[in-house]
Give the backbone structure.
Amino acid sequence: MPNTDPNITAQIETFTQQLVATVEAAVAQRIQAALAGAFGVQQKRGPGRPPKQAVAHVAPVAVKKSAEKERRPKQICPVPGCKNVAAPIFGMVCRDHKNVAKSKIKKYRDARREGTVIRAPGARLATPKKAKKATPKVARARKLQGQYLGALKSLTGADRARVKQTAADKGVAEAVKLAAGIKRA
């Protein structure tokens, strides 16, 4: 063996010992993580964001996620005759009954559980509301109002002010005619 500097030999031996210790520590840590994962024991977390996969080359353990839970059926408002969905923000009643006293709601829930239905004072049976058809006069007025607003939208400045003044003085129909004339010119 050729003569080597004892200083270099000592450095190489120190480096080799550190490398072996580091590899042994890494192997021990991987074994612990694999065992902990296999038995479902969560590892102690340190500071910072955890790595995406704590142990490389270890098959992930199948864990049932809470997001996979079955969805609960929608809860209906407990007020008798109401078919609306209850909302947690209103104390598990619908928005129409959010101001009903908690004691009354408790009675309604108890009655529902027992199978006896209490009719709330002032509550009507749930019937679908029919939309009222507008009379021809109301329909014409709505159409004219829409034309007026559409005409105003396309005008600016002094023309717009003139049309508004005409609507106030002579009526909306005259204002729509004036706006149409200004728009053409």
Summary: The two ends are 108 Å apart (CA to CA). Residues 6-39 form the longest helix (34 residues). The chain has a mean pLDDT of 79.
